Amino acid sequence: MSFFERIARGALRRFGYAVHRISPExxxxxxxxxxxxxxxxxxxNTLALTLSDVxxxxxxxxERCSDFTFVQIGANDGVSNDPIRRFVLKYGFxxxxxxxxxxxxxxxxxxxxxxxxxxxxxxAIAKEDGQVAxxxxxxxxxxxxxADGLASFSRETLVGNFQNVQGQVxxxxxxxxxxxxxxxxxxxxxxxxxxxxxxxxxxxxxxxIDFAAxxxxxxxxxxxxLSEEDRFKCFRYLNQHGYKVINNEANxxxxxxxxxxxxxxxxxxxxxxxEEKTLVPKPVSLKGSGASTLAEKRSx
Length: 300
Hints:
300 residues, alpha/beta, seven-stranded mixed sheet, 13 strands
């Protein structure tokens, strides 16, 4: 267990949560090897942080979580390996949850029954409003339970990314909505968190965002299914739009650079118990420290 896993577990216990690890049978992402970066990629010079670490720091810093607004693309059933559910339920985060598969979408709505401040969209995010073929594994009692949450616009991508799932692939037609259309429909002028889990389509969704119109403070996405080339292109793209990235194996947290002190600064450290403080070195103030780059070190 890592330093921050122990910290997160201890801190969440103080808020009444128990943490249990779930290990689905998913392929491991390829290692970062042999990649030349034309332009430096800015990375946080903090210790590796997860989305839960960042959100927990906001809670410990006493921010008004009831004003926190999120968009979750690929919300699945709202429970399985969901990184934000506990914050939605405990602290009243408000947002829009997007899930294209109708059966999974129905479970998503049931799992958030009577939870205020949420809106649901049974659609896939795409470049145009309309309809599209979505590929998924046909329901089969012999498949692992998490497999029914997997879907892709590309049959080859679905089969290639999940070769350990021995199931039949079927295509269904689902509605599509542009990201701008989604925000307009639900009257969102601000997005504090964009949560994306799109089974390898994450970078394409990020590129659909008009950052001149809306700029999420935090973007959390699954990069473990991206090719190595697309992974670095995605990091560089986010850098160009003012984000720093924290790479955590299968997932990445990106945040706006001006918000660094608030989101990943040292205030969180003072909120830890004395025992928790012994698990990690005291952080150095980020003010004026500058960003590390892949040109200087090849790990985040």
